[in-house]
Design a protein that fits this description.
- The chain has helices at 2-20, 29-41, 45-72.
- The termini are far apart.
- It is an all-alpha fold.
- The model has no long low-confidence stretch (mean pLDDT 79).
- Helix 2 runs antiparallel to helix 3 (45-72).
- It contains three helices and no strands.
- The longest helix has 28 residues, at 45-72.
- The chain is extended and about 45 Å long.
Amino acid sequence: MGTEINATLGAAFLAGVLSFFSPCILPLLPVYVSQLTAAAGRRRGAWGTSLQAAVFVLGFTVVFVGLGMASSF
């Protein structure tokens, strides 16, 4: 059973990496990188930068999940 879980996790990781480089995500990368660079430039430390990255990703997640739910309604 342990090998099946490792294979599943590996496949999920590979799918995540591949989806990161999909044409839908590539236009978002400059904005994401500039947000991280701006957060690091304000010298907030690692926790501040990580928090800003998490809030940025959460914002996109909420918007796209909401749009998906609205379109399926």
